[in-house]
């Protein structure tokens, strides 16, 4: 924004200079022009007089309407142009121009005039001539705005001395700055900003209206200088629909509604429904535009996505049905005269309009549309088509679409449609003849879907495991793919119930199969098993396996949004567990870039990508970012949590709040993090527990040593050695006596699992046993641990702000101001300012003093004698470690 303002100021920096700002409606041209004029006026030793003129009433407005309000001295007593001179002289354009120039300078009273004129493309011929005369006179500075180079804009734009400046859409960074100032916050949350920028195409007016509408409706959230709106709460503002109604005639409005409902209009049959005069008028008003469609044809659409969304959302249902019926009939009438039905994109359009208008669609249309859509289109539309096809007379087709409907309904959190799909599946499986007519793999998928549904509905897992066992016994030895489906389902259910050792024991064959169908079926189980391997310290293998599983799922025509989501998250989690921050960040970026926009939208609905971002922020000690992202995500997960992520996200949120010093909120989140919920949170139970104990250490609540001992015992029982080692390390942080008791076990684990994270942890335990203070930041292991995302807690200090605590943590470990600035997205000067405040508040003079304060503040207990819980975790485990 500052760069745009500077360019305008530079363009009119010389006496008599003029600038023409060109851009679409709502781009912020007038605001920028006024800001530049008032900035010049406010400069020290300046001698300017600013006059701001608004848009003329109509394009045919004469001199009196355009200039008379601002300079009434050019009017006679009847409000007409002054005719005190002779008739021929007074009606001369040159005479008007001279009189107007004199009036402007007289009003300025000796100062240099700056004239800001908006929408000069709408000036009539004579006002346009006067403006051109003022520009060419070079006796004042003019900043004009226009939507396009027509009318007066064209006249003054031809002058080579007028600098033309294109004002395009705001970038993400500019939109953040613009909205932050409007809302009085430091930043807009990244995910909210991305949504808003997409729907408004970066138009500043649309962004402003959207933000203020969210604030007016009470859905805007603020915390720690950040503003956001939960996903699904930022509906298109009614203001845009009202604006359309007030700007358009009745005929124009009906045309605009039709375009909004059907955009982009590229088919001849639909374009013929549009009145040419109305479309031209709407284009002139900046409400509609034409663009080149990927097909090569010219398409008609609304000028801004948010305008179309607002019109559709606030349109009465009968009007929507009327429009969809009209659009359906137009395409259907053309079908008999063209190859429309054989074109997948156009067939889909016909199906969409038919569904929206309640038409009785031919089965062949729905079937062909499903075939086209199932390769990765809008999951919501696919869900609707699937449910329509469940009544298919073909049992196999009905079963296939029922599977797809159930999968997408669960992913989207559409409980009503999920129950419809499950009811349909139960009907198929309850009919022996109908079920027997299906391929064995499809029969298996249907029966497994019902078992998985019962699992998510809370049915006891032991009963479900018995069902799986009986089902597997029914399968023949030749049904290799079906058997693998059952095994994969068993592993996932066990992992999602927190029974990690049992899940790992039924893991898929580590050797890839030559049958790609078997590998497709194994891929989800391999990814979930990778989560267990990560907790066991088999980090390199786990990352490779999860990455390969994801690539297998992307092969062929079997791409499924939920599969790609989950396997990508498991892949990311391996980098997070190993402390590979940059690789973790790149994997999250790749997840968002490697799938189409519709699947990406589902990724955000599921919360997997956002969970990864919060975990990564906590690993990098960007505590404010972690807390903000977790809080935003939890609002969405309260409505629907299809993967069972909430306990894990509560644990991340609790740790981040504890690190920021927000004790009461952290304690509350800690309680929520303890609650068990089936799903991903149970599959990564060890890492969730690690976050919980770390939070207790930051807060100094409860008995972290006892909690860590219990965690180590659990980890040994479950065969997850990295989690056990991390638990033992947290035990050592609490007590040197306990550290001596667990040192041997820690060293043994470190030798068995992947390096280097295990070496660093074991080395620090040894240092503590040898007498090193557990939080002595001068020990190199403390710095190395932070590189892996394992942060020793800050001392208690109620005087430090959240940002100061972040800066103090990095500084105490010896990180430079430049590093801290880059990590926290601050300037180095700001970091130094925060450090100065930290030194004053904790009573030290420099970084050396800060390190000493860090090391000396925390008091650790020194237990004597053998603790029974220590003895329990040093005995041999009940079985071999997970391999």
Please characterize this protein's 3D structure.
With 883 residues, this protein is mostly helical. The protein has 8 domains: 2-166, P-loop containing nucleotide triphosphate hydrolases (Rossmann fold), CATH 3.40.50; 172-232, no CATH class; 236-338 and 351-356, Arc Repressor Mutant, subunit A (Orthogonal Bundle), CATH 1.10.10; 362-438; 455-507; 509-603; 607-702; 802-857, Arc Repressor Mutant, subunit A (Orthogonal Bundle), CATH 1.10.10.10. It is built from 47 helices and 10 strands. The chain has a 5-stranded parallel β-sheet. α20 runs antiparallel to α21 (415-429), α28 runs antiparallel to α29 (561-578) and α32 (608-619) runs parallel beside α34.
Write the layout of secondary structure elements.
Elements lengths: L1 H10 L6 E5 L6 H14 L5 E6 L9 H6 L18 H4 L2 H16 L3 E6 L7 H13 L3 E6 L5 H6 L4 E5 L5 H12 L3 E2 L1 H11 L3 H13 L4 E3 L2 E3 L9 H10 L2 H13 L5 H4 L4 H9 L3 E5 L5 E5 L2 H9 L3 H19 L8 H13 L6 H11 L5 H11 L5 H18 L2 H15 L2 H5 L3 H17 L4 H14 L5 H17 L3 H6 L10 H21 L2 H15 L7 H18 L2 H13 L3 H10 L1 H12 L3 H17 L6 H15 L2 H12 L5 H4 L1 H15 L4 H15 L2 H14 L1 H17 L4 H13 L10 H8 L14 H11 L4 H8 L3 H15 L4 H11 L10 H7 L9
Parallel strand pairs: 1-4, 1-5, 2-3, 3-4, 6-8
Antiparallel strand pairs: 7-8, 9-10
Helix pairs in contact: 1-2, 5-6, 8-10, 11-15, 12-14, 12-15, 12-16, 16-17, 17-18, 18-19, 19-20, 20-21, 20-23, 21-23, 23-24, 23-25, 24-25, 25-27, 27-28, 27-29, 28-29, 29-30, 29-32, 30-32, 32-33, 32-34, 33-34, 34-35, 34-37, 35-37, 37-38, 37-39, 38-39, 38-47, 39-40, 39-41, 40-41, 40-47, 41-42, 43-45, ...
């Amino acid at each position: 924004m500052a760069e745009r303002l500077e360019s305008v100021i530079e363009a009119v920096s010389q006496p008599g200079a003029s600038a023409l700002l060109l851009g679409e409606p709502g781009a912020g041209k007038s605001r920028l022009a006024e800001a530049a004029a008032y900035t010049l006026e406010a400069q020290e030793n300046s001698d300017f007089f600013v006059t701001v003129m608004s848009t003329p009433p109509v394009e045919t407005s004469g001199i009196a309407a355009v200039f008379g309000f601002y300079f009434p001295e050019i009017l006679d007593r009847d409000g007409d142009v002054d005719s005190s001179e002779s008739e021929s002289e007074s009606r001369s354009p040159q005479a008007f121009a001279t009189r107007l120039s004199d009036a402007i300078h007289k009003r300025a009273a000796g100062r240099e005039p700056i004239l800001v004129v908006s929408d000069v493309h709408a000036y009539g011929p004579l006002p346009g001539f006067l403006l051109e005369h003022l520009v060419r006179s070079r006796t004042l500075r003019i900043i004009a705005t226009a939507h396009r180079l027509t009318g007066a804009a064209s006249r003054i734009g031809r002058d080579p001395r007028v600098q033309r400046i294109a004002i395009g859409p705001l970038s993400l960074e500019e939109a953040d700055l613009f909205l932050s100032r409007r809302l009085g916050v430091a930043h807009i949350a990244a995910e909210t900003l991305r949504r808003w920028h997409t729907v408004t195409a970066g138009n500043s007016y649309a962004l402003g209206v959207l933000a203020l509408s969210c604030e007016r409706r009470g859905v805007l959230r603020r915390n720690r200088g950040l503003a956001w709106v939960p996903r699904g709460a930022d509906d298109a503002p009614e203001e845009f629909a009202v604006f359309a109604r007030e700007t358009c005639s009745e005929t124009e409005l009906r045309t605009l509604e039709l375009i909004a409902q059907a955009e982009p209009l590229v088919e001849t049959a639909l374009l013929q429904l549009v009145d040419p005069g109305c479309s031209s008028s709407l284009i002139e008003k900046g409400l509609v535009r034409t663009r080149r469609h990927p097909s090569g044809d010219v398409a008609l659409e609304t000028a801004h996505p948010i305008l179309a969304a607002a019109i559709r959302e606030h349109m009465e249902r009968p009007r929507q049905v009327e429009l969809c019926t009209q659009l359906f009939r137009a395409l259907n009438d053309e079908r008999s005269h063209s190859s429309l039905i054989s074109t997948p994109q156009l067939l889909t359009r016909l199906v969409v309009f038919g569904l929206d208008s309640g038409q009785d669609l031919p089965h062949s249309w729905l079937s062909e549309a499903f075939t086209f859509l199932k390769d990765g289109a809008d999951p919501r539309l696919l869900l609707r088509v699937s449910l329509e096809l469940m009544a298919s007379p073909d049992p196999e087709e009905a079963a296939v679409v029922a599977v797809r409907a159930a999968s997408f309904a669960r992913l989207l959190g559409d409980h009503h449609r999920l129950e419809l799909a499950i009811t349909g599946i139960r009907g198929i499986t309850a009919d022996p003849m109908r079920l027997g007519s299906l391929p064995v793999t499809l029969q298996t998928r249907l029966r497994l879907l019902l078992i998985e549904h019962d699992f998510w509905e809370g049915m006891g897992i032991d009963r479900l495991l018995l069902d799986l066992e009986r089902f597997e016994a029914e399968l023949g030895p030749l049904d290799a793919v079906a058997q693998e489906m059952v095994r994969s389902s068993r592993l996932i259910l066990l992992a999602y119930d927190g029974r990690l050792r049992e899940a790992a024991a039924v893991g898929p064959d580590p050797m890839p199969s030559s049958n790609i169908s078997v590998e497709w079926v194994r891929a989800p189980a391999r990814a979930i098993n990778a989560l267990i391997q990560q907790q066991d310290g088999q980090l390199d293998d786990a990352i490779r396996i999860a990455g390969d599983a994801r690539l297998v799922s992307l092969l062929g025509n079997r791409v499924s949004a939920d599969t790609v989501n989950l396997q990508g998250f498991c892949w990311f989690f391996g980098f997070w567990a190993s402390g590979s921050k940059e690789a973790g960040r790149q994997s999250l970026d790749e997840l968002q870039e490697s799938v189409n926009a519709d699947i990406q939208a589902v990724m955000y609905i599921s919360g997997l990508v956002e969970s990864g971002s919060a975990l990564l922020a906590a690993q990098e000690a960007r505590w404010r970012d972690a807390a903000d992202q977790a809080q935003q995500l939890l609002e969405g997960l309260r409505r629907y949590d299809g993967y069972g992520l909430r306990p894990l996200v509560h644990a991340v949120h609790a740790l981040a709040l504890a690190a920021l010093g927000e004790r009461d909120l952290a304690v509350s989140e800690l309680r929520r993090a303890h609650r068990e919920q089936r799903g991903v949170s149970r599959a990564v139970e060890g890492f969730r527990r690690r976050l919980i104990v770390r939070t207790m250490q930051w807060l100094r609540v409860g008995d972290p040593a006892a909690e860590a001992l219990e965690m180590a015992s659990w980890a040994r029982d479950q065969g997850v050695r990295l989690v056990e080692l991390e638990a033992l390390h947290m035990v050592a942080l609490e007590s040197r006596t306990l550290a001596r008791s667990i040192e041997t076990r820690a060293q043994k684990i470190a030798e068995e699992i992947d390096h280097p994270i295990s070496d660093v942890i074991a080395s620090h335990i040894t240092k503590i046993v040898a007498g090193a203070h557990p939080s002595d930041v001068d020990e190199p292991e403390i710095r190395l641990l932070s590189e892996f995302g394992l942060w020793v807690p800050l001392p208690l200090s109620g005087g430090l702000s959240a940002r100061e605590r972040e800066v103090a943590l990095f500084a105490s470990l010896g990180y430079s101001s430049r590093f801290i600035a880059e990590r926290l997205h601050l300037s180095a000067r700001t970091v130094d300012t925060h450090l100065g405040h930290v030194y004053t508040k904790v009573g030290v003079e420099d970084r050396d003093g800060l390190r000493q304060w860090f090391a000396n503040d925390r008091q650790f207990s020194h237990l004597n004698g053998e603790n029974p819980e220590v003895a329990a975790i040093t005995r041999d485990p009940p079985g071999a470690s997970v391999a």
